[in-house]
Design brief:
449 residues, mainly alpha, 6 strands, 66% helix, three-stranded mixed beta sheet, homodimer
């Protein structure tokens, strides 16, 4: 049998590869090519393709369709996906599309549209498998038969009372393993993790991770079950939030679309704002340095260590803020932990600062004795400069660790996203203070002699 | 009825809150307090707590238990979780724990231990619901009854041939909705997305996201199904990989544990390495500037714009690399796209550079005419300096965008993680080249007169 089966297996893998290629080429195609391609492939592949697209691409494709074609594809899609698509459209247009649905779906989609897209209510599917608490196992299985014929997935079955309040969850495996005359409520697991309709999707993702959930019911304040969020929706949310955080951390506003699909104007808009702000912040470095005109005029080589000092502060700040932003996003570190973090970062910063300080000292002495003898005038001057550079490195690394780790706490306290404690933002803060440290030490150790 | 139900609901919410508090306090407790607390709570809460802990905490807790206690808890856990725990233990110890399991589980766990923890094989659960392709619906449901009694979850049922090769998937809803004498193979969906045992977990996560999966079978090269990965495992993987990427992007080695549980020595080790390397890289800035001794001695205020110029290059580089690292991690941008990215980044960089350049020019002129008249000697000198600063800003922003976006491609080409194109790494590259741009322009526009 073995050799006969091989080609089938190969064919399956080839098909998966071909499909993935189509999917990854999709963003590069224009709307006309897309609809042409979509119409050309077999129906089951077209279904898979539509399911795997993001909501922008789905909207784009449906927009290029004829009315009857759009109607039949809208009826194929899940209600929560339809709601996402409609929320991309201008209001008048969305109403026209709604009319393509049957009355029952139209009502459910309208209800979903009332939720914010980023809330639990906007993520949930209002269709889920349910049984009544007073049913016997036999009645429950028969009732699930009917729901299965309506294409309601049975992976997660919930036990509701007569008022649709959630009482528990019961696995289809438990129902199948039980005696047919047992009562459903006695088999139900009543410890169900739930969330309210208005919970932010980032928190929903954290709950899924904390409890290793595959699904979570959404309930209103009276305990009525409104819908079900499944882990596949949450995977998308987590990836999306991860991208937004990464972009904010890189020092820009988060993009609404993927890199390739963001227009050049939009891209410049999202980036230039922060860069101009940071540039203005960085202008304080010029003012700070201008105060040390006398030192700079007298000792030209003080200037050449400026980038080395400021960048070391920025780099250690970038590490500290990356650690803190992520630990806060994962819920590992809370606001009340700030003091413990402060102590940790001060000690790490001090040790790392001393290590960098020694490297810096070696650099100055090496140049003076071996590479470019006499560049700093005298041996004594080289040692003084070395001490200045190395003490400054200790200072700026310490500053970087403290500023980088505390800024996310401050942002969080001001109800801002800690991810905005970007590497550039921290670097700018540390640059201004770091230069003051450097020139103050230089005044004490060099210029005053 | 309403007011009677309210307290129950409240109780449930309180319980969930109490549980979350225990869970979030857990990392702060020492081993003795943990085991004490664990023994004090009701059994069902203890089960939930153990399920929600990460593998380090699970191992820690089980280690503090007596032998009979450990045996009973090990038998409670899923086989893939046991394998993860055993892989944390020293070899001799792991063997002793293995002996606490019954023979069948021991074999399965041993098989799991052979897979790398970060591979699909290490993520999968070897227990999954299966039916034979030649069964009728009635026989299949009966067979699933038996599996349900063995506590095998029935959310996903796979159709295998007599050699355990995967032929398709069939929902329990489909089985329940079908006629009892239909053949299972005729109901099966044969388009199942699968992955090989050695697929990296990051790719597994990407597949789940791309196809919106809730579960994916792992098959060997001959198509035998070895186990099942479910979306809840993938949520953990994605969050873990996101943290690793964020830390790398912040310019350090990724931590193995959470921030609070990483020892100070380990923390310094993971951070100091990159900082020293970056410091050594940054030393080229001192050498680069030393070449312009003549200019620096003659025109002291050239130095005061150095931090402003270098930081603007670093900031725009940080944005570009954050965008690219994330777009590559999400599979939106592939290696072959480098030229399109290069063109996009060059044009964005040029436009943003000109905007920053204008702001820089205004800064110089403002100081000269209003804030500190005559600081740059003459009006002509102020204009020349303004032109130097603003042209340099255009240059470094352009450099930053190009270096920041191309470095992830270069790393990826060298089989390195693009996430190592950290903000500090990019900033260091841009600092050295940016200073050369600045002093070259200064030589042409100012010093030569």
């Amino acid at each position: 049998m073995e050799p006969l089966k091989q080609p089938e297996r190969q064919e399956h893998t080839d098909k998966q590869e071909q499909f993935e290629r189509t999917l990854s080429d999709w963003p590069r195609l224009d709307s006309a090519t897309r609809i042409e391609l979509f119409r050309a492939i077999p129906l089951d592949e077209a279904e898979d393709l539509l399911d795997c697209m993001n909501v922008n691409d789905q909207t784009d494709l449906l927009t290029s369709m004829s009315l009857p074609e759009r109607r039949s594809w809208l009826r194929y899609l899940d209600l929560d996906d339809i709601a996402d698509i409609l929320s991309e459209l201008p209001e008048g247009e969305a109403d026209k599309w709604l009319e393509l649905l049957d009355a029952r779906s139209r009502d459910k989609v309208s209800a979903l549209l009332a939720y914010a897209e980023d809330d639990a209510g906007g993520l949930m599917d209002p269709r889920f498998a349910r049984v009544r608490s007073t049913m016997t196992v036999e009645a429950a299985i028969n009732y699930l038969h009917i729901q299965a014929q309506e294409k309601i997935p049975l992976e997660h079955v919930y036990v509701l009372d007569s008022e649709q309040k959630l009482l528990g969850e019961v696995g289809i495996d438990t129902l199948l393993a039980a005696n047919s005359d047992e009562l459903v409520i006695e088999l139900a697991d009543q410890d169900v993790v739930t969330c309210p309709e208005d919970m932010d999707q980032e928190e929903v993702g954290a709950l899924f991770a904390r409890y290793s959930l595959t699904a979570m019911p959404v309930v209103d304040e009276d305990g009525h079950m409104k819908g079900l969020i499944t882990a596949d929706d949450v995977v998308d949310v987590i990836l999306e939030e991860g991208t937004e955080d990464a972009q904010k951390y890189g020092g820009m506003e988060a993009l609404d679309e993927s890199y390739m699909r963001t227009g050049l104007g939009e891209m410049i808009h999202k980036r230039a704002g922060w860069l101009v702000l940071l540039l203005i912040g960085e202008m304080f470095t010029a003012s700070a340095m201008a105060k040390y005109q006398q030192q700079l005029e007298a000792i030209w080589y003080l200037a050449i260590f400026v980038p080395l000092i400021t960048s070391s502060g920025g780099n250690s700040g970038s590490q500290a803020s990356a650690l803190m932003v992520r630990a806060m996003a994962m819920g590992e570190v809370k606001l009340r932990d700030w003091w413990r973090v402060f102590l940790r970062e001060s000690s790490s910063g001090l040790v790392i600062g001393i290590m960098l300080g020694l490297v810096g000292l070696m650099r100055v002495l090496l140049w003076n004795y071996f590479i470019d003898p006499g560049i700093y005038g005298s041996s004594l001057m080289a040692w003084r400069l070395g001490a200045t550079v190395s003490l400054s490195l200790v200072g700026v690394v310490l500053l970087g660790c403290i500023a980088g780790s505390m800024l996310p706490f401050i942002l969080s306290l001001c109800k801002q996203d800690p991810a905005s404690a970007s590497a550039p933002f921290v670097a700018t803060i540390v640059d201004v203070s770091g230069l003051t440290v450097y020139f103050t030490i230089a005044s004490l150790l060099i210029s005053s002699y």
